[in-house]
Amino acid sequence: xxxxxxxxxxxxxxxxxxxxxxxxxxxxxxxxxxxxxxxxxxxxxxxxxxxxxxxxxxxxxxxxxxxxxxxxxxxxxxxxxxxxxxxxxxxxxxxxxxxxxxxxxxxxxxxxxxxxxx
Length: 118
Prior knowledge:
Blueprint: H1 6-23, H2 29-33, H3 36-59, H4 61-66, H5 72-84, H6 91-116
């Protein structure tokens, strides 16, 4: 497998983060906590984000290590916690992630996309 999938994975990360942020746009925390459909959409986006980050870490470790501004391990960890403990998801943590971590991630990932031609 010599095909360079890195641009695809980075694009998946950007899209999943943008989707999650978009899903909660204009919502309050309480509205999010009361809206199961939005919760599930955001959680799925976080799983996709974590899957793509894991692929980058596994298949392009030198690249991931060189991009220390990207929280690769945190994304993989959140994906694993969601996927393996689905009924114990802390929606407050999900909300905080979307509000506080993802906007910065989008800013950090964009130059990587530009550089990779994605």
